[in-house]
Every structure is written in structure tokens, then in C-alpha cells.
Design goal:
The protein is an alpha+beta fold and about 375 residues long. About 60% of the residues lie in helices and about 15% in strands.
């Protein structure tokens, strides 16, 4: 018996581990191409910080990859054993399908506990640190907000471009000011510019730009046909300040998303309400509390999906009885997409009277019911 349990566990763990690794790679690669590579190319983070950002992505995607990976692993393992008549031989020896699948289901239960821990503690901390590094990089190196050779439109009413950057120095610096209709009003060119974070006299965060060998050309108001000469001025050194409250955000001050809160923070939000003003009415307070409870339940339901999807996969794999990796992977994706579609539909419910914190468990209940029905039918054959 131990030999059979070890065989089933090994088959499921190897296939599930490989599938989970593949899904983690796909999910992480998308974020790397979208954000991390852009931050490295722009010089906002160095190579080591880029590797740290990639490592911080993994805890956030593992809770999504584990249900898919183990679902695929169970389909592959039991599909192969079914196609090679191993399941039939085990049944002939007096073992039921539930007993055969026990090692795989125990593995799924352990992975569900791991996923819950990741969802509630590790992933929120990793996501917060990831965001802190990404937004804090501009604070540590202000010149990194300008990507050489590209037009920068982060500042309202302005377009900025620099030909090259060396550390904190921008070479061949250009700044164009435009009105609310996009018409050019002023051009500033400097041989080099140094950017620094500063605080204005009004106490607001600004980007202070120190220009060297600067020339300023101002267009007369309304002269878009360039019929009148522009006024210009030159200076060996000059300084301009741009509002930068939306760029320089300390890691502790940026707005955290609800799903980034840890268990303790979610429980506190469930008591006081999430994003609720002090003078909120009873309905707004109830909605804020329900939103926090629903997010907590969503974390737990997402972790439990590791077990429920694996439970469904056991009789489904035996019934399909296919050993082909492609077929089983396609079946796994179809099941997972259906599950996540149901979860998304449940998450759209916001009315506290409809108990969205309980409704979020409905997809798991449906999956378990379907798995129990299929398991009972498979046990008859």
C-alpha cells in the first residue's frame, strides 16, 4: 500500500511541480517584460534591484499558479495512469478511486495551506515591497524619470526630451511647454541639466532642474502661424522647478491596494471599513466593512481552490483517460477559466445584503459538487 501511495504521490508531485513552474514562468515573464525590464532600461533600478523585483513577483503569482499547476498535474498523472490501465489494476486489487487519490488530495490540501499563507501574509508584503522599490527608485535617482531618446509627458503641459544621461546629468536637454490645446508656447534647451528632488516654498514636492548653457524661446500668445518673432533669453546657469508630487512617493506613503493587506490589516479594515471617511453614513461604513471581509474570504477561497480543483481533476482524468500532455493541459485551462469566470462574477457583487463574502465561495462549492458527482460515477466502473 505504501508503495502505491508513494507512486501516486510522486507522479502527481512531479507533474504538478513542473506545471506550476511553467505557469509561474509565464506569469512572471509578463510582469518582467511590462515593468521590470522598462525600469532597468530607464535606469530607475540597477541589475541587482531588477533581480530583487523579479524575486518579489514570485510570491504574488504563486497563489494563482498553484491551482492551475496542481490541476494540470493531477490530470496528467491520473490521465497517464488511467491510459496505461494502472488505475484499473489498483481497482482490481480492491482499492476505490477515493483511496487511490488520497495521496494526491493530501498533497493538494498541503498546497492549499501553503497558498493561504502566501495569499494572506507573504504575497501582500512582497507586493508592497515591489511597489516601494519601483516608485522609490525615482526618488533615489531623479534623473531616471527621463528616458534618453524618448519624449516624456509625465508633467502636465510639458514635453521633455534628453539625448543621453550620465548618472544624474542629462545631455542635450529639451523642454517644450504647451497650452491646454497642445499649442507650443515656450521652448527651453540646455547643454546639460541636473535633476534633484526638492521642496518648494509652499511645502510641495518639486523636481528642481539646474540648466547649463540654457536658451529660452517664448512664443507670443495666439501666434500659431509663427508670424511674429519669438522672444528669447540665454543663461550660463538657470534653475526651473516642476511639480512632482505624483512622481516622488516614499514607499510608505503610496496608496496600497486592498489585496495587498495582510491578515491583521484585513481584519482591522473589516472592523473600521476600507477607505471609509470619518463622517461616513451607515451604508458606506457597511459597504467598507463588507469589501474588506470579501477580500479576506477571496484570499481563503483562492487558496482552497487548490484542493477543490484537484478533487475535480481526479475523476475527470480517469473518465477522460488521456495521457497526452496537450489534451490534459487544454482541459485544465478550460476548467480553470470557468472557475475564474465564476469567481469574477461573484466578485462583482458589492451589496452587503447579498453577502458577497459568502458568495465568493460559490465557485468552490460548485467545483466540489461536480467532483463528488463524477467521483461517484467513476466508482461504479
Amino acid at each position: 500500500m505504501r508503495l502505491l501511495d508513494r507512486h501516486v504521490l510522486t507522479e502527481t508531485a512531479v507533474a504538478g511541480g513542473a506545471a506550476t513552474g511553467a505557469f509561474v514562468f509565464v506569469l512572471v515573464a509578463g510582469n518582467v517584460l511590462n515593468q521590470v525590464s522598462g525600469a532597468i532600461a530607464a535606469g530607475r533600478v540597477d541589475g541587482w534591484e531588477g533581480l530583487e523585483l523579479i524575486a518579489l513577483l514570485i510570491p504574488g503569482v504563486l497563489p494563482y499558479a498553484l491551482p492551475l499547476g496542481l490541476l494540470t498535474g493531477v490530470l496528467l498523472a491520473f490521465g497517464r495512469m488511467g491510459s496505461q490501465q494502472e488505475i484499473t489494476a489498483m481497482k482490481a486489487s480492491g482499492l476505490g478511486l477515493g483511496r487511490i487519490a488520497r495521496p494526491a488530495l493530501l498533497l493538494a490540501a498541503a498546497c492549499a495551506l501553503l497558498s493561504a499563507w502566501l495569499n494572506l501574509e507573504v504575497a501582500p508584503a512582497a507586493n508592497t515591497e515591489y511597489r516601494r522599490l519601483l516608485v522609490g527608485s525615482a526618488k533615489d535617482n531623479p534623473a531616471s524619470v527621463i528616458v534618453p531618446g524618448q519624449l516624456n509627458r509625465q508633467f502636465p503641459g510639458m514635453v521633455i526630451r534628453a539625448a543621453a544621461r550620465e548618472g544624474e546629468v542629462l545631455r542635450d536637454f529639451w523642454l517644450w511647454r504647451v497650452d491646454d490645446r497642445g499649442r507650443l508656447t515656450q521652448t527651453i534647451h540646455a547643454r546639460e541639466a541636473r535633476l534633484a528632488r526638492a521642496v518648494s516654498q509652499a511645502g510641495e514636492g518639486v523636481l528642481r532642474i539646474t540648466l547649463t548653457d540654457a536658451r529660452v524661446d517664448a512664443r507670443p500668445a495666439g501666434d500659431q502661424a509663427f508670424l511674429q518673432p519669438s522672444s528669447f533669453a540665454t543663461a550660463a546657469a538657470s534653475t526651473i522647478e516642476l511639480p512632482a508630487s505624483g512622481i516622488f512617493k516614499d514607499g510608505a506613503n503610496f496608496q496600497r491596494k486592498l489585496r495587498w493587506l495582510t491578515t491583521r490589516e484585513l481584519l482591522a479594515a473589516a472592523e473600521t471599513g476600507w477607505d471609509v471617511p470619518p463622517d461616513a453614513d451607515a451604508r458606506t461604513l457597511a459597504l467598507g466593512r463588507m469589501v474588506a471581509r470579501t477580500q479576506l474570504m477571496a484570499h481563503l477561497a483562492g487558496a482552497f481552490s487548490v484542493f477543490s480543483l484537484a478533487f475535480l481533476a481526479v475523476p475527470l482524468a480517469v473518465r477522460v483517460g488521456r495521457s497526452e500532455t496537450f489534451v490534459n493541459a487544454a482541459v485544465a485551462l478550460a476548467i480553470a477559466l470557468t472557475y475564474y469566470l465564476l469567481t469574477a462574477m461573484a466578485s462583482y457583487v458589492k451589496d452587503p445584503g447579498l453577502r458577497p463574502d459568502l458568495l465568493i465561495w460559490a465557485p468552490n462549492a460548485l467545483v466540489l459538487a461536480a467532483g463528488a458527482w463524477l467521483l461517484r460515477r467513476a466508482a461504479r466502473h
